[in-house]
Design goal:
about 260 residues; alpha/beta; Nitrilase/N-carbamoyl-D-aminoacid amidohydrolase; 6-stranded mixed sheet; 14 strands; C-N_Hydrolase
Length: about 260
């Protein structure tokens, strides 16, 4: 049975949706049959460029998610992928989870960062999705800075927090620290996918990773287009909940 989660990193081409979908397809083909859920970077379908994304934003579901579903179906693995979503007059920085059957979930980034707030509306709620490796909560980039986001997902019983990002090299230490901290907060696995390369002066850090519910980084890729994966082990989740029983304590304090 497939039990691995994966984070995929690459450098999107700004404004070239077709090229970026091909990168998703190529990395998806490298996942292998033991990966049951994979995460791709924030806004990777269009590239991270706030001037470009309004013209490339898509409905969800829509033509772009149809293409992603075809890729997910061909490799038989659900994918979490970042794209700009158009909903009426509103634009959202959205993470879609797609399988061969189509869109399984869509999460709208709750905390736009910096100039993003001039382009994107804020999402209003956490979003979970059931996968072959457990319940996954969705989180995007700057959301990682907010412990309450992770705590909401812990209260929803998540086994995994999936994070996609366009995180800069200048904040690399924060990326690694916050990924580990949210994993410990859960406790749950964190699978975190980041951009690489330079996009209009933004140097992205890479370092996509999987952190375990003990807060330890189990696997990590520093630079280059690549896939990083690690197994989700129920015994490790159970042990983490016993050694760090914050979920049970929170529930008892609410009684």
């Amino acid at each position: 049975m497939s039990n691995r989660i994966a984070a995929c990193q690459f450098e999107p081409v700004i404004g070239d949706v077709d090229a970026n979908l091909e990168s998703v397809r190529a990395l998806g083909s490298d996942l292998g049959t033991d990966v049951a859920f994979a995460v791709f970077p924030e806004l990777c379908v269009t590239g991270y460029d706030l001037e470009t994304v309004p013209d490339l934003a898509t409905s969800v579901p829509g033509p772009i998610t149809d293409s992603l579903a075809e890729i997910a179906g061909s490799i038989q693995c659900p994918l979490a992928v970042g794209l700009p979503e158009r909903d009426g007059d509103d634009l959202f920085n959205t993470t879609v989870v797609v399988s061969g059957d189509g869109v399984e979930a869509a999460y709208r980034k709750q905390y736009p960062w910096g100039a993003e707030a001039e382009v994107f509306s804020s999402g209003e709620e956490p979003t979970t999705v059931e996968t072959p490796v457990g319940t996954v909560g969705l989180c995007c980039c700057y959301d990682l800075n907010f412990p309450e986001v992770g705590l909401e997902y812990a209260q929803l019983g998540c086994d995994i927090l999936a994070v996609n990002a366009a995180w800069r090299t200048s904040y690399l230490s924060d990326w690694r620290l916050l990924s580990r901290a949210r994993a410990r907060d859960g406790p749950f696995y964190v699978v975190a996918s980041n951009h690489i390369g330079d996009q209009h002066g933004r140097e992205h850090a890479g370092h996509s990773l999987v952190a375990g519910p003990d807060g330890r980084i189990h696997s990590e890729r520093t630079t280059g287009e690549s896939v990083v994966s690690a197994p989700v082990e129920e015994s490790i989740l159970e042990q983490a909940h016993e050694q760090n029983p914050v979920r049970a304590t929170r529930l008892s304090n609410q009684d």
